Amino acid sequence: MVACPMNADATQALADDLLTFIEQREAAQIAYGVYDVTMTGAEVLAGYRPVDVTRVPLVDRERALKEALRWLAAEVLIICFDGADDPAEWVFRSRIAEMVRLLSKLRQRLPPRSDSERRRQHISRAKALSGDVTFHVVPRQVPQRRRVPADYLALLGDKPEHADCARLLHAAITTHLPKLQKLSQFQEDALREILQVIELSAARGSERGVVVTAGTGAGKTYAFFLPVLVKVILDRVLRKKIGVKAICIYPRLALSENQLRDFVEAIFCVNQVLAAEDLPLISIGIESGSAVYECSDFQRTDQKSQASLASRGWRYDAQFGGYLAPFAYCVGSADYDCAQVPQQLGVLPNASRTLCCPACGATYPYILFARDVMAEAPPDILIATTESLNKRLITAQYQYLFGTHQFCAPSVVMLDEIHLQTSTAGTQVALLLRRLLARVRLGKQERGEQANLAFVGLSATIADPRAFLAELSGIPAQNISEVRPKDDELEVIGAERYIFVRAGEGEDTAVISTLIQTAMCVLHTMPQPPAGNPLARYRAFGFVQSLDVVGRWLYQMNDAEKMQPGLQEKRKQLREQPVRFAQWPIAAIPLYAYRFPPYNRQLFPNLFGAGGGNGCGCEQGHPDQNCPYFAAGECWWVLSQKGKARREPLNIRRKSGADRAQPIMPDDDLIITTSALEVGYDDEALMCVIQYTAPSNVASFVQRKGRGGRKVGTRPLVVTVLSPYKSTDLFLFRNQHLLTDPTFRKLPLNAQNRYLQRIHGFYALCDWLAYRAHSAGFPLNIDYLSRSALAYLMEQTADV
């Protein structure tokens, strides 16, 4: 049982569960249009029931709940309307409920053109922007992590080489890898199932599938990567096999680069243990748009070379004197900046084969990023995209990736986010996978190997995952096993909050005006990291469906925040002068300050008529519900609480496929993007996702909202702004459960598509020709046929 008084961690855990209870109660009333919802402390003390039913009962219930309420009030996660000492006497609402109320009252506040117009501005002339606002709270269920290395590494058994592998991994995990020091039961189950296929069962040359399904942040990546590490240590380190052991396939370039960052850290730690015992090191390579064909590309630093490498994501840094990689960061060295701030690895012109850290100088020779270097000794683990694999399969010089007489064939092929593989594009991937598995099979036959092959699919929750993976990979469903977290291993930590805003139908306002005002309200009033958190601020992603909207949102948002360079300099000069904020030129004042107390009353003293609300001093204490500014949603009270809200203009950045060389900076508040970043960006500071209009499909929305709150126990916010004029938007506003509680039913995938089969049948012939050409030592490249290559093709296909 929990003792009272509770320690800080216990208080915060209880406060988190209590806040979920409060927000759920408020959401029930908001569903009926009661936006001014309030609760009392007595009501909470009497009615609280743990959202997490596994919580241990409290010894001194009332005292513990009062401590939790005080903590919530101190962090401004609830907003009290009086100054009573006893929490039982408080009247309050949650901070998110207050945000919902503000969104329901949004008005179009345009900058006045003169000082006299500013003083005459009246609330009645400001157009309402919100047609309707709804709010949902979904508790987050995550698998409990209780399995320690001694437990799950015991799966390897007692064979000498298996015991050596377990010993090496145990040393690396317990010393350097906290992410693997405790696993959940489903991660251990995945380890067992994959190892059973590739190592523990008799080698018969069979192909079996394993599909791992779990929610965002549950740990699917390490459920797959740990058995890969085991296989690589056995084959490369202990059996001295050279070649690719595992191919990790990702549907997006950004996702492949993000996963590579995680793997680099794990391999770095394992290699430290291997190096201490003078054993071969593990390598990892990238086969995507970021990879270069020759490492000599980095030896040139002229403008043309810089532009060429920038198109692949490599940014030239004059201070470093070389190119910074878009996919790899330093693990961090003590007493250097890279230990505190993420530092991109780079490559110098005079050492173009090896990545190094510009801050500490550490080198990473085991990361392979140039194809000519990989041809000499293929990486043990290959990170690839579907597009790059298609090109490599049909090119003779890259056949070393899939198994040849010289290099071993992969034992594991993994495809991430399989639920994204639907419709025609998904069918293309399904047929590509069949070609890949057939080519790996050829590689094993050439070497006379009988090793089994595991095809692993990672996914969000889908209906009948075994049948879907069977259709995707061509492996019979009876040869596929499913791994997922069981209900009894889940616990509730944190919650996801969903806000849906339907724009008003006024003739004088555009839907994007609702988006701009919504984004300002959410980002300036959303909760910030609590005291003691190493993060300085939270940030948001804004997702749209087209680059045109990206540009419009960026321009208009910067205009509303007054972040043009000239206005930033103007504000800097004004701060150095003894001029009151209310007397600044109105053109230099951001629009959010129109609701920032006390400046809202000073800037617009007659917004509610002469003398309306001027006597309110809510910024000195608690908000006054009777103040006309507060009641009308024209007072964003949390801005007055220093350190608890974003009180400065927002730093806004665009990030699309064309902006790959531009990194997201630590002080960015809003990143506006398209589908380019809906998968593969993990950032603990990302706590809010704003979706503008309906996403292309539910799977896309799941990926986008999954970017927020990646750390277990957080409370991400997902805000969706929908148009009243689009049928898809109206449908989703009326059927919000499709987005808040999605379960993918029968996913549309047709691997029997006759037209696509013909296309990939031709590609399969090209795969075979490339394989034959490599065996014959002929440099065949289907994309760039020379006269001699054409003659070779005619000769090889004469009898086809």
Automatic annotation (TrEMBL):
Record flagged with keyword Nucleotide-binding: yes
GO biological process: interstrand cross-link repair; nucleotide-excision repair
Signal peptide: none
InterPro entries per the UniProt record, alphabetical: DEAD/DEAH_box_helicase_dom, Helicase_ATP-bd, Helicase_C-like, P-loop_NTPase
Record's keyword terms, sorted: ATP-binding, Helicase, Hydrolase, Nucleotide-binding
Annotated SUPFAM superfamilies: P-loop containing nucleoside triphosphate hydrolases
Protein's name in the database: DEAD/DEAH box helicase
Organism: Candidatus Viridilinea halotolerans
